Amino acid sequence: MFGKKFAVVALVLAAIMVITSCQPAEKLAKELNWNLGTEPPTLDPALATDTTSVLLDEQLFLGLTDFDDTTEANVVPEIATEWSVSGDGLTWTFKMRKDIWWVHYDPASKKFEKKRLVTAHDVEYGAKRTINPETASDYAYVSYIIKNAEAVNTGESTDLDSIGVKAVDDYTVDFTLEQPAGYFPAIASMWVNRPVPHEPIEQYGDLWTEPGNIWSNGPYALDTWEHENRMVMVKNPHFYNAKNVSIEQINFVMVTETSTAFAMYENGELDVAAVPLEDMDRVKADPVLSKELTIAPRLCTYYYGFDTSEFPVDNVKVRQALSYAIDRQKLVDTVLKGGQIPAWSFACKGIFGQVADNPDFPGITFNVDTAKSLLAEAGYADGAGFPDTTLMFNTSEGHQKIAEFIQGQWKEHLGIDIKLANQEWGVYLSTLTEDPPAIWRLGWCADYPDQNNWVHEVFSTKGANRPNWTGPEADAFGALTEAAAAAKDPDERKKLYFEAEKLLCVDNSVIIPIYYYTTVRVDKPYLERTDQLVGGQHFDVWKVKAH
Amino acid sequence: MTTQELTAQQKAALRLSERQGKPANLWRDAWDRLLRNRASVMGGVIVLALLATAFLASAIAPYHYAEGDSFEAYTVPNWLIGILPGNIEAYAKTGTKFLFGADYLGRDLLSRLMYGTRVSLPVGFMGAITALVIGLVYGCISGYYGGKVDNFMMRVVDIMYAFPTMLLIILLMAFFKSTFADISPGSPAYTFNRVNDVVDRLLGLQGGGMLFIFMGIGVTAWMGMARLARGQILSLKEKEFIEAARMIGAGDIRIIVRHVLPNIIGPCLVYVTLAIPGYISTEVFLSFIGLGVDPPTPSWGTLISEGARSMRSYPHMVIFPALALSITMFAFNFLGDGLRDALDPKMKGSS
């Protein structure tokens, strides 16, 4: 009897042990729902200039190098397995992986087709295509560090072969530079230097990035692109690391209104959302949402720029007065509420050569008295006789609130009325290029964490020069940033950037730095994600747990 | 006997005795009929109250519409807390300083609503005036002269009608917004901006950009009225009394002004009153999508659009502007209904 009972107990115990030991593998969902917030201006890596396009290009096209997801944003290998620089610092040689395929995906039949391997010739073609003036890339100046790139891009030379990028063999590519640049591996990661396939570009022209036409080599392929509505990407099974890619499909929506997107998040239609300003307090107080909330620094700066050729902001005293009259801390505390840091320089913390947290920097901070006396010196005591001036921003609830706050600050502290106007992003960008308003709003995010990417590439008179900044001090600024780019000694570079920031933000007040961004977002608890400070997010390493 | 309906004859006799033998008068009769309609009296009172608010906004509003301290952003009035759903006390500032609460920059919502009448009402009335002035004149000329003139003028209206009204207004506003952003002296845009400044100053809303809204709405407001006036005149001008007037040598202008207009003004006025809520809602819609007045000028449309975005956290921001808008719509519609019954008894019951 005893024996039988024992046998039953043993059997039950064994059964329990078997059941508990073979726990099922972690269940994962296959889809990610993401809001782009806008129609992406382009998918062509040579033409991308904005964060949305860059995010999408990160999924479709691999760079020679990439940034890791730590706060240091270190350069790590991607297509390139290793790289080296010549003794004079002018020639960089990249050795490439031999298992990356150009893939064509047909959305109708849902079939992937391996076209051919990605070679060094594609890198050379991609880099030269960006520099070629016919491509009309707004980001070509990023490549001016490459030998002869500037001459070709500005039309001084028509010889594409003179550009310092050369495929040595099928899997080795050489970049020859104008001057030594320790940050070049970061430039090699950028979309403007990514390999692109010449076949579809030659076949379809501008339409090569449409679904069905495009060839890509990244972790995802383009399935659907309904303009101004939605986009779908599917996992590329021929991606070299495909077995580690967990999310099989990404559904992008293009909801402009952050409040709508946030409502979609609360309804479970989105897995990540930015928190609208008006919902910040509720999110912080809500027991569920507050756990999903992340506030983290970003390498971005929010600023207002001036068209320094336009009356009355052609007067540096007016510009300084406007900058002194903004209480940035109050803006952060009462309107933004996302732990942003008031700004007094262009580059933010985390960028090499920044002065954002340098107590010696004589940056402009809120000071009503200085603002008033500067405005009086400019001839508009207490705002009397201040002419019509327009502040323009791209249409968005957040920008509007900030603009209204600052409009109120100027009215309260200086007694001047500034008109507000807004335009949709695409239109706004072309307005800024063709006929910038007196005061305009933009943000800048790091493409790589070095001041060269900030003061030099954004405000160099060789670039877009949106502030229309000319004159001896503009030239001095240009000389400083160029000297800083060429200098080898880090301390020397820091000193030069200090002076450049001082010219830009204080002495000439060409821009009003407002705040350094933070990421303020909510993530669903079932999302396991990383956070990419530089470049696009790496969806391929994310996981969505079953929910 | 007491509950019995009066016959028509008895009613007429009653009215005659009320008039105490005074001769019948179109306007007086209409006024009497209007007063007997309770809904329209109520509508009229509300419209008058709104008008008074618009005129006196700067005197009776507790604060200026652009004045606010962002430290008080999103203050919810104490009395509302209990009524609102959710758990607002947990995160919102509360207080008694603002009757209707404050918006995202700490500006008093009640004051903004009051100043908002200076946008909504002028837009409604300017739409009506444009319709009356342009539409009536256009329709009268077209209908009275008839023939080729009529043919041509009405085809123009047909073409204008073929555009979807809202789309046309949106396109116009977008065009104005981008074209007139240029403020270099000497350009036509500069002149327009000066005129706009005068209009804004008259309304007490500096930097509002009201002229552009008037233009946008005015461009499409007159067409319906032109058709209505023409139709009325076509049937009138064959009547004997017009022929009689012509036979004794009256000129065209005299006939139109003295004999035709008084006979068609009733239906036209009714039409205009009923169209006013349409103009107001057009402005609200334009402001809602960001093509209306420029910030910080408050318009009910912008208030509703800001409120709708904050609805999930701060419902007070949308409740009051939405209430104000719907009450105004009802008021104008009731008043219009009453006016129709009063001025044009034949149309009673048909709408």
Summary keywords:
heterodimer; A: 547 residues; alpha+beta; Dipeptide-binding Protein, domain 1; Dipeptide-binding Protein, domain 3; 2 domains; 7-stranded mixed beta sheet; 17 helices; B: 351 residues; mainly alpha; MetI-like fold
Quickly name the level 1 CATH class of chain B: Mainly Alpha
Low-confidence stretches of chain A: none
Give the rounded overall mean pLDDT of chain B. Answer: 82
The average pLDDT value of chain A, as a whole number, equals: 89
Helical coverage of chain B, percent range: 55-70%
| Count of distinct strands of chain B | 2
Distance between the termini of chain A: 48 Å
CATH topology of chain B: MetI-like fold
Low-confidence stretches of chain B: none
The end-to-end distance of chain B, rounded to whole angstroms, is: 34 Å
What features would you describe in this structure?
The complex is a heterodimer of chains A (547) and B (351). With 547 residues, chain A is an alpha+beta fold. Chain A has 2 domains: 37-219, Alpha-Beta Complex (Dipeptide-binding Protein, domain 1), CATH 3.90.76; 295-519, Dipeptide-binding Protein, Domain 3 (Dipeptide-binding Protein, domain 3). Chain A has helices spanning 2-21, 51-60, 120-131, 149-153, 184-189, 198-204, 258-266, 280-285, 289-292, 316-324, 328-336, 368-377, 397-414, 425-434, 455-459, 472-486, 490-507, and strands at 28-29, 31-35, 65-67, 75-77, 80-85, 91-96, 101-106, 111-117, 165-169, 172-176, 215-216, 220-226, 230-235, 249-253, 272-274, 293-306, 341-342, 390-394, 419-423, 439-445, 511-523, 527-528, 543-545. The longest helix of chain A is centred in the first third of the chain and has 20 residues, at 2-21. In chain A, 46% of the residues are buried. With 351 residues, chain B is an all-alpha fold. Chain B has 13 helices and 2 strands; from the N terminus they run H-H-H-E-H-E-H-H-H-H-H-H-H-H-H. Chain B has a two-stranded parallel sheet. In chain B, helix 4 (78-81) links the parallel strand 1 and strand 2. In chain B, helix 5 packs antiparallel against helix 6, helix 5 runs parallel beside helix 9 and helix 6 (147-162) crosses helix 9. Chain B is globular, with a radius of gyration of 24 Å. The chains are: A alpha+beta (547), B mainly alpha (351).
